[in-house]
């Protein structure tokens, strides 16, 4: 009863087993009490009450088992071994993240170099296409000029053919008129000849008759 009265309830808080490899969890507040189990270093324990006179604390392990351990073997922070392990794990994670970052940076640099190469190739291709476009435009301009000149020449040839046809028609009409004029002249000559052929004999007859009367 005295031990029970001296044991003072404590607010539930977490303590850690010290850096010793193992400590006993007992059923009471003395070394005479039975050991319930051994607790590994760094095991988090929930402190239920503290017996300052006996130097023991009643705790609850993560598995739910309750018992008493020496208060001086408990620490407010995790053990150095656990903290070192956590620090090493954190360091390993940081190193892995750094390696991943460096690898990503290397990949980005490689990708950047590839993109710069592609950009250079695209710029060269763009320059070549511009030159080809200028050449095509010059060729197209020359072709258009030639086509326009050919069109003009065709128009002139068409006009000349029309003029030639007109001159041929006029020449044919003139030839027909000339033939008609010559025909008329010939006809007139024939008619004049006929008239002369009719008149001249009479004139001769009259002259003879007049000579005969003399």
UniProtKB/TrEMBL annotation:
Keywords, comma-separated and alphabetical: Coiled coil, Membrane, Signal, Transmembrane, Transmembrane helix
Database matches in Gene3D superfamilies: SH3 Domains
UniProt entry tagged with the keyword Signal: yes
One GO CC term, this protein: membrane
Regions crossing the membrane: 182-200
Domain SH3b stretches: 12-78
Subcellular location: Membrane
Coiled-coil boundaries: 70-180
Main location per the UniProt record: membrane
Family annotation (Pfam families): SH3_3 (PF08239)
Topological type in the membrane: Single-pass membrane protein
Protein name (record): SH3b domain-containing protein
């Amino acid at each position: 009863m005295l031990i029970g009265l001296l044991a003072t309830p404590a607010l539930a808080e977490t303590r850690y087993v010290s850096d010793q490899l193992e400590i006993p969890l007992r059923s009471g507040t003395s070394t005479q009490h039975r050991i319930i189990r051994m607790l590994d270093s760094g095991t988090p324990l929930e402190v239920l009450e503290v017996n300052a006179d006996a130097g023991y604390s009643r705790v609850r392990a993560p598995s739910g088992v309750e018992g008493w351990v020496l208060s001086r073997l408990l620490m407010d922070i995790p053990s150095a071994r656990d903290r070192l392990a956590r620090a090493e794990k954190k360091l390993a994670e940081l190193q892995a993240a750094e390696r991943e970052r460096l690898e990503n940076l290397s990949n980005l640099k490689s990708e950047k170099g590839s993109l710069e190469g592609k950009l250079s190739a695209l710029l060269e291709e763009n320059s070549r296409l511009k030159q080809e476009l200028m050449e095509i435009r010059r060729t197209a301009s020359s072709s258009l000029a030639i086509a326009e000149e050919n069109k003009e020449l065709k128009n002139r040839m068409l006009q000349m053919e029309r003029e030639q046809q007109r001159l041929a028609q006029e020449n044919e009409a003139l030839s027909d008129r000339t033939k008609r004029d010559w025909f008329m002249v010939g006809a007139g000559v024939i008619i004049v000849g006929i008239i002369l052929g009719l008149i001249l004999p009479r004139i001769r007859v009259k002259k003879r008759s007049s000579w005969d009367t003399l």
